[in-house]
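Worked example 2:
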Amino acid sequence: MKKVKFIVFICLFILLPLAYFNGFIRISDLTSEQESIAKKYGGVYVFDEKLDKEIDKREEERRIMTKGLSGKKLAENRYAVDMTPVNEKLPRVLSNGKKYYLRWVDYENETRKKIKTPQIYKDKIKEFIGSEDYEKFKPSYDLGYFYIDDNDEVRVIDLSLDYYVVETTYTLSGDEASGIKFTKNRYINVAGDNYFYLIDNKFQKINK
């Protein structure tokens, strides 16, 4: 009987604080040095400023035109807009005649082909960061604006450099089927929101 009481006491000792601080206790293995690297180098890297601005301008024009179109109501506050007039008048085509894409997923959904950021662009960023800091906290690349050239090669206009860490939240969750869980892990991006432009073959930080 004493053993049962002791087990119950231990369970309550563990569960009650978790219930009280449910979701408030978060721990990650991020070091202060890694955080400094992420804040310093994380953000958007623009390889072609001219084309980057072209796309921003065209997307704003498309947004304004789309806003003026009426759509078919699907549900409360949800409408389906026919984008044909927008695509005809304001196509997603650059001044060089190439179709541009806003995200890698748009290209893959359209073509059913996988796409990767070419190594040459990654190497340019690594050169800017420096091998030592790069190896201390390796980033992830999220392809942004790009187009496909005549040789079927990816021409990156901009991309995001992200830094992810695993954050453990101490919480109470679960059900009868999956069981009770005391921790929940998730990836969080700790990168800074910097903008770097490639000017004279060197990246320079720009305030936006």
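Residues 23-68+78-206 form one domain. The helical segments are 2-20, 32-41, 49-67, 84-89, 104-111, 119-129, 131-136.
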